[in-house]
Amino acid sequence: MTGEGNGAGAPRLRLVLATANRDKAAEILSILRAELGDVVELLGRPEELSEVEETGETLEDNARLKAVAILEATGVAAVADDTGLEVDALGGAPGVYSSRYAGAHASYAENVAKLLADLEEAGAEGAEARRARFRTVVVARFPGGREVVAAGAVEGSIAAEARGTGGFGYDPVFVPDGGDGRSFAEMTQAEKNTRSHRGRAFRAFAVGLRSAGP
Predict the structure, then answer these.
(1) Phi, psi for 72 (deg, rounded to 5)
(2) Residues designated as active site
(3) By C-alpha distance, which of 164, 175, 158, 166 is closest to 116?
(4) 4 pLDDT above the threshold of 50
(5) Are 133 and 195 within 8 A, CB to CB?
(6) Torsion angle, CA of 18/19/20/21, rounded to 10 degrees?
(7) pLDDT tens digits, residue range 9-26?
(8) Host H or E run for residue 17
(9) pTM (2 decimals)?
(10) What gap in Å lies between CA 134 and CA 136, rounded to an integer?
(11) Residue 189 pLDDT grade (very low, low, confident, very high; cuts 50, 70, 90)
(12) Tell me, what's the pLDDT at 3?
């Protein structure tokens, strides 16, 4: 890969992070820096840009909408992701509406509260009845239209109540398989990155980025 020089002669590709969510941006930065080091220069989303309306029918649609919009606004290659929580007892909801499950400007706590209330109304009791998965799709868009696409998923269940103080979003109620019964919010950032949908998706993205070449 080629890109902007870093002053020490090493090649560097510049990518703008499309997300406006500071928590998600910090998580993505930690994952990609661990995988790619200084091969890629990661730039924050310009604060003056408005949020991109997520009108796609799939996670990949929404990730692409965001990546294309940021590329067009900045002229710099952009990387975006979209993540959905799929709960079996709710027919796969909230899915693409995960970030706005309780409304367009819902807080993390409001989304979690609605999820737990809907599961109670559905009569879903116990881990097996509350099976769920997180899915993340990553799309990087480059000038000229080239793309790198990757995905990651993790199976688990929804806890009866929020647990832990780490993470964000649905982390306090999502209990991943193989995590000793802890929610994502009860794990360190490093532990979560190892197991999570986003960690898996962005590690796959890093591999795809290297394979794509200049």
Answers:
(1) -65, -30
(2) 82
(3) 158
(4) no
(5) no
(6) -160
(7) 445 789 999 998 899 999
(8) strand 13-17
(9) 0.90
(10) 7
(11) very high
(12) 38
| CB-based contacts of 209, cutoff 8 Å, min separation 6 | 1, 13, 36, 40, 140, 148
Structure tokens at 23: 């928590």
Q: pLDDT band at 37, cuts 50/70/90? A: confident
Q: What is the DSSP string of 75-141?
A: SS-EEEEEEEEEEGGGTT-EETTGGGTT-TT--HHHHHHHHHHHHHHTT--STGGGEEEEEEEEEEE
Domain architecture of the chain: domains with CATH: 13-212 (3.90.950.10)
Residue entry with tokens 């919009």: 69
Q: State the average pLDDT for the chain.
A: 91
The token duo for 207 is 């591999």
Return d(Cα 182, Cα 184) in angstroms, integer: 7
pLDDT of residue 8: 46
